[in-house]
Specification:
Length: 256
């Protein structure tokens, strides 16, 4: 019962699905964050269904932009703010305190704008190739892999001094077994479907680790913004790595 309630709380927070729940406690709110990969599976199922529908247009470019718009609408663009704020801070090349101040600033800076444009372009190109190649399963797995990366991040990283937002508590309650269970489940599904998907998952997890190490070096850990960036960046990593592996023919014959 608690799992189902926390799952619904997570859906209401991470998506625009209209779910009304009363008397949500602070602990329930934070614990629902541990279910991010499960919620990612719902988002992925919606993306797969929408992608299948727009693939009938037989216009990959139009289908790709429609998928991007649909994803932003479904999630409310929740994590793109974290992408922009993190890039603004890290690429400012200032000292720690100044970086943290920039990341907390609600205004969009030039580096953040450039980062968002590049990410949107990457997603559009990736979606286009996914639609053209009929790799719709990638749309289903991307949100799961991205949100797994957030759990991985919260487990292996500490919270940066001076960081604000909702991220501190999730870093305190995330345990190694959460990472292990999610990683095993995702790896099993990816491996069953395609060796390329499994390799893409492994590479995206490694890239996430490197990205978190770099953030630890630059700002001393993670924040709520960097967790959001982790989700969006690792979705892109997973999709692009899979498409590269598919293009060069790495991996065994598969279902996709």
């Amino acid at each position: 019962m608690n799992f189902f309630r926390e799952f619904l709380i997570g859906l209401s927070f991470y998506t625009r699905i209209p779910i009304q729940l009363k008397d949500v406690s602070e602990e329930e709110f934070y614990r629902c964050m541990l279910l991010m990969p499960v919620i990612g599976a719902v988002i992925g199922a919606a993306l797969w269904g929408f992608g299948w529908c727009v693939s009938w247009l037989r216009m990959p470019e139009i289908a790709a932009i429609l998928i991007l718009i649909f994803y932003i609408w479904l999630t409310g663009g929740l994590h793109f703010d974290g992408v922009a704020d993190t890039i603004d801070g890290v690429f400012s090349a200032r000292d720690h305190d100044k970086m943290m101040k920039i990341m907390k600033d609600s205004r969009l800076g030039s580096f953040g704008a450039i980062g968002l444009v590049l990410l949107m372009m990457t997603l559009w190109i990736g979606y286009r190739r996914v639609i053209a190649g009929h790799f719709l399963i990638v749309l289903a797995l991307m949100p799961v892999v991205g949100r797994y990366a957030a759990i991985q991040t919260c487990c292996i990283s500490s919270y940066a001094e001076g960081g604000g937002g909702l991220g501190r508590r999730i870093t305190e309650i995330t345990r190694g077994w959460h990472v292990a269970v999610y990683a095993a489940a995702i790896a099993a599904v990816c491996g069953w479907l395609s060796m390329r998907l499994l390799l893409a998952f492994a590479v995206s997890a490694l890239l996430n680790f490197i990205m978190m190490w770099d953030l630890k070096r630059k700002i001393g850990g993670i924040t709520g913004d960097t967790i959001g960036m982790t989700i969006e960046m690792n979705q892109a990593f997973f999709m692009i790595v899979f498409l590269i592996l598919q293009n060069i023919g790495v991996g065994l014959p598969s279902m996709v």
